[in-house]
């Protein structure tokens, strides 16, 4: 089985090629509620010393969004506090 490597919150993670965001969330044991996913283009994290913008992916697109090798993924989890 072929794998790719994506960077999740600055940590390298190996996933099966053709994995979706939903697959990644399951693999990492994140809850599907209360999180946001932002992704930058594959292999394009830095440009002229500046980090490129990330695109927030709506949750309804997670099952269909196929990850690419070397993509930079940011997972933000909501927390409660006061």
TrEMBL record:
Highest taxon above the source species: Bacteria
Stored Gene3D superfamilies: 3.10.20.30
InterPro entries: Beta-grasp_dom_sf (IPR012675), Mopterin_synth/thiamin_S_b (IPR016155), Thi_S (IPR010035)
Protein name: Sulfur carrier protein ThiS
Species of origin: Sinomicrobium weinanense
């Amino acid at each position: 089985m072929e794998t790719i490597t994506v960077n999740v919150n600055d940590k390298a993670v190996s996933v099966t090629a053709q994995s979706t965001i939903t697959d990644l969330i399951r693999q990492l044991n994140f809850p599907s509620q209360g999180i946001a996913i932002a992704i930058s283009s594959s292999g394009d994290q830095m440009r002229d010393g500046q980090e490129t913008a990330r695109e927030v992916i709506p949750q309804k697109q997670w099952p269909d969004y196929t990850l690419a090798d070397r993509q930079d993924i940011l997972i933000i989890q909501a927390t409660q506090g006061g």
